[in-house]
Amino acid sequence: MKKAKKTETMKMLIKKIAVVACVATLAFSMVPATVQAAGWKQNKNGYWWQENDYSYPRNQWKTIYGKQYHFNSGGYMDTGWTKVDGRWYYLGARNDGAKKTYWQKVYGKYYWLGSNGVMRTGWQQVYGKYYWLGGSNDGAMKTGWQKVGKYYYWLGHSNDGAMKTGWQTVYGKKYYLGGANDGAMKTGWQQIGGYWYYFGGVNDGSLKTNTWIGNYYVDGNGRWTKTRKTDKQILSEFISGGNYKRYTNGYSNLSYAIADLNADSVPELLIESKTEASGFYVTWVFTLDKNKNVVPVKVEDSELVLEEYASYGYGQFRYSQKYKAVIVSTTFRSNSNLGDIPFYKLQGTSLKHSFNIVWDKWDNPSNYRYDSNGNKTEITKSEIEVYKQELIDFSWTQFGSWTKSYSETDESQPVVQSANESENQNESPVVIPEETQGDEQNGEQNLEQDENKEVEQDTKVEQDAEIQEDEEIQADEEISEQPSEESQSAETQKTEEQVDE
């Protein structure tokens, strides 16, 4: 009896425990569901953030687990390139959405997003270095040669982008890009460290060496060598110094001409004396030897040599551009029935006979070409006229009008562009030609042509400007509202954090 009573008590206790458990379970199930509601949600249109009260953010930034996200008007998380309040942000790949900052590589291009994630454009100073990030809707870091405003800048190879200054060698050519806060490629004459250098025209900028720039010579280091003279200056001083008189002593009514007789870029000097009104001339020719000394030229194979280096005859010396030959004076005055045009070519220090064009009414054939070997080739009167029309006169200047040494006085003289390191300006080249000789005779080279050369090894971005690449970007992703590729609105002012041009 007593045992049965205990069993009944135990059953009652178990029932009470069960009731309490049910009540507790029921009570817990009745706690508001908002405690578990907050979190990321997804459907076919994208991701959104659901708050505890089942609401979700729209048209706003929200920090979630330490990262910033932007939600559009529909409440969905923005990704890729997104423009918010007129500024561009990069919000990662399709399954990311977190706002990116500092350097980011997006589809092969680098962008500087700063600490607040805003895409920067124009000139930007990053970790002490300047970068050109294109126009207002561009932002991509530029490399290689870039023209910004009026000037060219060298921004390194594909993984670099930092503006270079000072002396730089690019694709085997030397350039000077100004001081630390300058970077603009210098052109024309520049004084650097007390020396004058020449850097070509506005679209060139490469240092010129071992060549003539107008009347000025630059050596192997590109420095102007003040004691070096042009060939024309040497011939000019031969006249102004009176050295020619040892050959022309006793002759009057002198004139001179300077011309390149054999198209070798070395000019020759001709001096003539008109001895009578009937057109009889005595002529001397001078050239430069390998040591740049003025030496006389001997007219060979001619009966008209008055002295060792003086030839005489009727008519002035003329020139054939086509045959690179000098037409010397003849023993008689040509007429319609009888005439002779002797062609001589300059070889070293000699004028050697090449051929004659002859018309002789009493000869057979009456019109012919006569070469240095004595061979005759019949030609027509029309062909003779072609020979005559091709001849040109030298530009003669009388000695009485001599006022100064020969120089290219018709060349323009633009202002010398000043480099930051310019020092003593007291002495400088006077004539600064628009077009130069030597390496520049084929015209200014375009910098963009050098960009097509293969670069063996691209330089890397400096360690202090470590670039973070978004590893989650997929090749097939489409960027939302991606900035356009236009980068051509050149912004030439560099403000506070930017470079003063």
Brief descriptors of the model:
single chain, 501 residues, mainly beta, 13-stranded mixed sheet, 3-stranded mixed sheet, 5 helices, 11% helix, 30% strand, elongated, repeat, N-acetylmuramoyl-L-alanine amidase family protein, signal, Cell_wall/Cho-bd_repeat
What does this structure look like?
By secondary structure, the protein is mainly beta. It is 11% helix and 30% strand. The protein is built from 5 helices and 33 strands. Strands 20, 21, 22, 23, 24, 25, 26, 27, 28, 29, 30, 31 and 32 form a 13-stranded mixed sheet that branches. Strands 8-7-33 form a 3-stranded mixed sheet, with no helix packed on it. Strands 17-18-19 form a 3-stranded antiparallel sheet, with no helix packed on it. It is elongated and about 165 Å long. The protein starts with a helix and ends in a 32-residue tail after the last strand. 27% of the residues are buried. The C terminus is likely disordered.
Concise summary:
Helix content is 11%, strand content 30%. The chain is built from five helices and 33 strands.
